[in-house]
Amino acid sequence: MKTTMEGSAEGKKVYKLVLTGGPCGGKTTGQARLCTFFENLGWKVFRVPETATVLLSGGIKFSDLTTDEVSQKASDHRTIFKDGIPEHSVDKTASCPRCLAAAADKPNGSEAYKFQENLLRTMIQMENTFFELGKSCTRNCLIICDRGVMDASAFVSKEKWDRMMRTNSWNSVELRDNRYNHIVHMVSAANGAEAFYSTEDHACRSEGVDLARELDYKSAAAWIGHPYFDVIDNSSDFESKVNRMIECVCQKLGIDTGDRLLTTSKKVKFLVSDLPKDSAFPAFQDFEVVHHYLQSAGPRVQARLRKRGQNGHFSYIHTIRRPHLHGQSIEVKTQLTHRDYLNMLTQRDDAHFTIYKKRRCFLVNNQYFQMDIYKDPGHPRCKGLILLETYTSLSGDKLKGILPKFLNIVKEVTGQPDYSMFNLSLKEDWSNTKKFCYSLHDPFYRAG
Question: May I ask which residue range the UniProt record assigns to the signal sequence (predicted)?
Fold first, then answer.
């Protein structure tokens, strides 16, 4: 099993997590449980409240932001209101990103659009305040954001979202990929646990389930492309669902939970024979990805830099991978500035090619996939190579059942050294090199 940890140069961790999800997905309960779990570990936990709820509970009425056309139950199924408020809300002041954005997206919804823009500005400033507190904290710090900035993009037209980005000098790579360490989406009970969706606290009619599914999918799709994005579905009971959420956060941080949480997921990798047309895919995000291997700091240690981005905007990650106890390997990932990235490029290992990829990220049936399409220049062994990855606890036929049907999957290659990026990037032929890595745990392997 591979675990991932983010750290700072001082050794203290500040981890910025977005907890999002569809209606009745367990976000509120999960946040409370996550807070207690990390406080028991000795961490300082900050919780950034949902900005829309803060503003709407301060006296702003949703009906004040909409026209009569929007406030009524229109034929447009995205706009479902009763007495000027979302009829599926838990309480009368709670926010609904879908309904708010639907109002902002109307031709005559300028007031709601402006409110949405100001809501994002407020959210960013509130989060920045907590992020600064985290930096000054003397303990390890977990910052839980109740939704994040990309949630607002789920139901606004691309034209209006792009206008909002231009007006405020924002870009989606910074807001989605660089702002937060980890995104966790709690799937709505309306998608896989329907019997638990309609409760006496929710004034939902039968059509509310379908609307909740729509909201759930679109809010998850808003985060497609974040490098560390987990979707917690309803394949288990609610208690196990919350534990899986806590576990996935601990895994990314490299925290050993012992027997407190059951290990449920691992990374699996598959060889894909060819790339279908774009129209075969659900909503996806494509990224330019560049990997450089660095001179290693010691035996059986791999170090690399990753540059990842879209439209000229990039994030930079430094990864150190080394063997761990009990046959596990651990990855320490640190986010870098562009200047630090350029400085570290001087440590490139000449024994390796630079790896160039197109990375496609997408959701299928609540399962998050990333597909790496290797590009030139590189070793001939990488020509035409396409690898699909996901995290799952399933195996055998159940694992095959969740794989995208529109892809021609040749075979599973999880753990096979021929498909390790470290080995694929080697300049020497594998038959003539001593650098080929069969396993980080091989006592005869020496990196660098």
Answer: none
